[in-house]
Please model this.
Amino acid sequence: MAYLTAEDKAFFKENGFLVVRDALNPQVVSEAQDVLWSHMGQVSEEIDRKRPDTWINKGYHVLRCGSEAEIKRLVYADPVFAMAEELVGKGLLHTDGGAGPHVNFPRDEQEWNPPKHGHLDGYHTLSNGVPKGTVSQFTLGVAVYLSQINAEGGGFTVWPGSHKVWGEFFRYHDVDCLPGGIAPFDLGESYEFTGKPGDVCLWHSLLTHTAGHNISRNVRIACIARPRRKDLDQIRYDFPKDMWKYWEGIN
Model:
């Protein structure tokens, strides 16, 4: 059974991402939500799942969990993993990753500021734990929403088409030449992924993205995984003219 249509794949190739609505069974979502909320004390003991007033101004956090079965299966079980393979190719991705919960708490502010720039993952910053002088690469990003995200609610934000810009850029520049993974030039307009629990965004590893500014009254909860090709270490510095050379599911 195929989950993605030819139109879905064409959209992914053109824009570098694909949003799939209602991708997950509500029971699977509910069980993952329960596990994640049980770890919210890592942020603050005062956070109460039933009291939105305790969520305000708690910042942005990546919780120290994600390897629990209830969370891993959001990405590494069907249908989402099958969708990933339909893009990259059957049997080509590692199946043993986690799905880190990224929690973007609401701010006590009235004015929304759209993000001015995003980044590519895997580049060293002072706070992300990536060793200086290295670039940690992957193949396909997956963001699974576990909360309701409306406009201006801190949603996962992407720059459509930026994957094509970077695919061409790295044909002529070293992959480690980009401090912090931030573009030194304009990439155009961004798109904020809004949705509800169980909605999923798949994105190309070279797509510029970031978390938006959250002025809603809800917590943006996204479990994010970055599946890698099994042979990525052998091809990681190959940026061919045809950027889909290693995407057997699309070609």
In short: The chain has one domain: 10-235. The chain has six helices and nine strands.
